Amino acid sequence: MSIAQHFATRAARMKASEIRELLKLLDRPGILSFAGGIPDAKLFPAQAFAEAYAEIMAESASKALQYSVSEGFLPLREWIAGQMAKIGIPCDASHVLITSGSQQALDYLGKLFLSPGDTALVNWPTYLGALGAFNAYEPRYDRLDVRGNRPASDYAQAADAAGGRVKFAYLSSDFANPTGETVDRTGREALLDMAEDLDCVVLEDAAYQSLRYDGEAVPPILALELARKGDLDACRTIYCGSFSKTLSPGLRVGWVVAAQPVIQQLVLMKQAADLHSATINQMVIHKVAETCFDTHVDTIRAAYRSRRDALLDALARHMPGGVTWTRPEGGMFVWVTLPKGMDAADLLARAIAEHDLAFVPGRAFHADGSGGNTLRLSFSCADAAMIEAGMKRLGQLLRG
Ligand code: PMP
């Protein structure tokens, strides 16, 4: 008997993540890995966390160790509402749901909106974890054209022909994973226009939003929609935030800001799925955020900015002609495009075997399996010497 034959149809769409497999390489001594898109552990505010856990256990252990409400720890939701107001999204705690990382929000939003055969609009390439989360709900993907060059009716007809509807457009608005690119204000407005025409939801993934190193901040899509409509409860944009890139990914604390009917439905989902995110972790995140969020984010931005600069500088010196790359204003990633016909997955096998070098080949980020000549470089955990040595090796590999 094969137990797999009893799995639901949705299981067929769940595949091992290429990145998770690659993360194992980080442990191999001597490897220069630009693969894992994770924060630098040396930058975690470990002392502040140690003190926060100690204080909470001394002062409120019975609360911290107990079950708590599905909506999330109220003081944390209020703190988040205060942060959202600073970026043009005034709201109160009733518009905020705490999730176990923003990854959980993506899963819930897939579950909330996608019936099998419905269409999700995503960028080519897009965040692999979003495809992983949505895949379980058996959608069809179509390519999101942020510039709005494709008429809404075109998306709608294609979705209809596939037996479903366009339910949402998902995008990582600032310093996207994997490209590092940011959608400018005009692109965001055009996307909102298209969402109105299509009558679909916008899922705004703001996981990297706080990590801007230069240039002007662009208002979140939700802020632009709120400016149009004047009422958060009338907005179709759902904003997903995270403490993973700023304070710590290990605590698994993220949040959703949206119209109250959406939040209320997500609360029901959270009740059914995991009751609530870890009480003590929410309390600790709240304490650390209150004491040092801004200063800590300034510290990590300075560190990541210099790594980004080092990577862009090394790419300029070591890449052969015909190779192009993005110049991100923040985040953790640079996206490299190789000459047509080259295959980054083949290249990775040689990079590991011959050069002790790792990166993520780009195909997995494309819902249609294209992008074979692209790759993602992460600079968040690399120092200047590693970047110089790594890009020299990548240059040699590409020339060889
Ligand atoms: N969105 C994007 C674009 C990401 O890169 C990640 C993490 N790699 C997430 C969401 C999920 O992060 P978390 O669940 O830790 O908040």
From TrEMBL:
Is Oxidoreductase among this UniProt entry's keywords? no
Domain Aminotransferase class I/classII large residue range list: 43-394
Cite the CDD domains for this sequence. Answer: AAT_like
**Would I find rRNA processing among this entry's keywords?**
no
Residue ranges annotated as coiled coil are: none
Which cofactor is essential here?
pyridoxal 5'-phosphate
The domain of life is Bacteria
Q: Which UniProt keywords apply?
A: Aminotransferase, Pyridoxal phosphate, Transferase
Q: Which Gene3D superfamilies match?
A: Aspartate Aminotransferase, domain 1 (3.90.1150.10), Type I PLP-dependent aspartate aminotransferase-like (Major domain) (3.40.640.10)
This entry's Gene Ontology molecular function terms read:
transaminase activity
- PANTHER family reported for this sequence: AMINOTRANSFERASE (PTHR42790), KYNURENINE_ALPHA-AMINOADIPATE AMINOTRANSFERASE, MITOCHONDRIAL (PTHR42790:SF19)
Q: What is this protein called?
A: PLP-dependent aminotransferase family protein
User: Taxonomically, what lineage is the organism?
Assistant: Bacteria, Pseudomonadati, Pseudomonadota, Alphaproteobacteria, Rhodobacterales
